[in-house]
Design goal:
The protein is an alpha/beta fold. It has 15 helices and eleven strands. The strands form two sheets. It has an eight-stranded parallel barrel, surrounded by six helices. α7 (199-215) runs parallel beside α9 and α13 (383-391) packs parallel to α15 (415-423). This is Glycoside hydrolase family 10 protein.
């Protein structure tokens, strides 16, 4: 689950725009290397000192998430001028190039709204501070164009069902679909959600997301870990009436809910490929599908949340059925963490994707680095570099994505700098 605490964005974002031309030129020069040849199974770490092998470097994902919900990463605050917003966005793209990353996963539909001029949903309030207010520019269009100029992929990150981080529909703009169709919405855990059990909801949210696929040259549609909401003690997601209407033939409500999520994933996958076959579909779930104590097919973990049971998301099944192009589990724990050990989850996911043709990327908790509330491992600047070393021993792991953008920039514990120095000595292309 994403940590919602935010820290300030580095000063000088606007100044980085002045260096945009030089950065783009540098990115173009870096991309002049020939396409990489495959390397042996288990490879992936950087070559030893004095060895430069750019022609045999394996393609790998090196990405970072840039979150817009609650202004976690970008924009640093609502209500900035269009120029300031653009400057901050470009600063993130330039940072990705400087860190030798090759993909930015930008959140463009944080709360049933849009960071592009959508005909389905209002402008996101995180831009101007007012939902539905035109910010005076096209953030998604600009992000795609400027990312590609720098040799970066742009993965458009959507949240399917979250409507608001509050439960008051009257705070939504009057034309919001959730106000026009109040029967679509359920309050839960202090938030508003679209009801995943309604066929009309599933159709609408897909149409809203596919609008961006049609209109922009995005490289991927990306979803994170939110499907049915995370459980909240003492609260009930009130979909009994929907289950009574549509749940015939299922053994229980949990099975029906999983089928609803399956339908969303399967239909979205088909919709993307129908519009643009080359656009990838990737999902970044919570790192534990099921514990082995619950299911012998599960991982050797004792996690308090299991996506199959608690979020009604059969993440393992989506891989096995080939509905997605990549999976990026959020393995947000250190090596040796008792309840969910990074060193146990990586081989489990490696085995899950083997033979499926689905790429495996690992979501990394850079935000934990240097956080005094975290275990001792997260105070060691080498922790994430050890993650990369460990994952390099599993040939199905095709890269890593770091949460989140502001932590790539500020790098409180020096973990990102260590990863770059140890593993990202030259730029490479993402897998395809």
């Amino acid at each position: 689950m994403r940590q919602m605490a935010r820290r300030g964005f580095v000063a000088g974002a606007a100044g980085m725009v002045a260096g945009m031309t030089a950065s783009v030129a540098g990115a173009a020069e870096a991309l002049a290397v020939p396409r990489e040849a495959p390397v042996p199974s288990g490879a992936g770490a950087s070559p030893g000192p004095g060895v430069n092998l750019p022609r045999v470097a394996r393609r790998e994902m090196r990405g970072m998430w840039v979150a817009t919900v609650a202004n976690i990463d970008w924009p640093s605050a609502p209500g900035l001028t269009a120029a300031a917003q653009q400057a901050e966005l470009i600063a993130y793209l330039d940072e990705a190039v400087d860190r030798r990353l090759n993909a930015v996963v930008l959140q463009v539909r944080p709360t049933a709204d849009a960071l592009w001029p959508s005909s389905y949903e209002p402008w996101a309030q995180y831009l101007t501070g007012v939902q539905g207010k035109n910010p005076g520019w096209d953030p998604l269009g600009t992000a795609v164009r400027e990312a590609h100029r720098r040799g970066l992929e742009l993965h458009a990150w959507f949240n399917p069902y979250r409507v608001a981080n509050h439960t008051d529909p009257s705070r939504l703009v009057p034309t919001h679909p959730a106000r026009l169709h109040p029967d679509w919405v359920l309050p839960y855990g202090g938030k508003l959600y679209y009801n995943p059990g309604l066929p009309e909801v599933r159709r609408f949210v897909q149409d809203a997301m596919l609008d961006a696929v049609r209109r922009y040259d995005i490289d991927a549609v990306h979803w994170d870990d939110y499907f049915y909401p995370y459980p909240v003690a003492g609260q009930v997601f009130a979909d009994d009436a929907t289950y009574a209407k549509y749940g015939a033939g299922f053994p229980d409500k949990a099975a029906w809910r999983r089928d609803n999520t399956d339908k969303l994933v399967r239909e979205m996958s088909a919709g993307i490929k129908k519009i643009k076959k080359h656009v990838q579909f990737g999902i970044s779930p919570f790192g534990v599908w099921r514990n082995a104590g619950t299911d012998p097919l599960g991982s050797d973990t004792r996690a308090g949340v299991q996506t199959y049971d608690d979020l009604h998301a059969d993440t393992r099944g989506w891989v096995k059925k080939g509905w997605i192009d990549y999976i990026c589990p959020q393995i947000y724990w250190n090596i040796g963490f008792a309840a969910a050990d990074y060193a146990k989850l990586v081989p489990w996911w490696d085995a899950v994707v083997r033979g499926t043709g689905v790429n495996l990327f690992v979501g990394e908790a850079l935000y934990k680095g240097g956080d005094p509330a975290q275990p001792a491992a997260w105070q060691d600047p080498a922790e994430l570099s050890r993650h990369i070393d460990l994952a390099a021993g599993y040939d199905q792991v095709r890269g890593h994505v770091y949460f989140s953008g502001k932590d790539v920039v500020t790098d409180r514990a020096g973990m990102m700098a260590r990863v770059v120095a140890d593993h990202y000595r030259s730029r490479v292309r993402p897998p395809r």
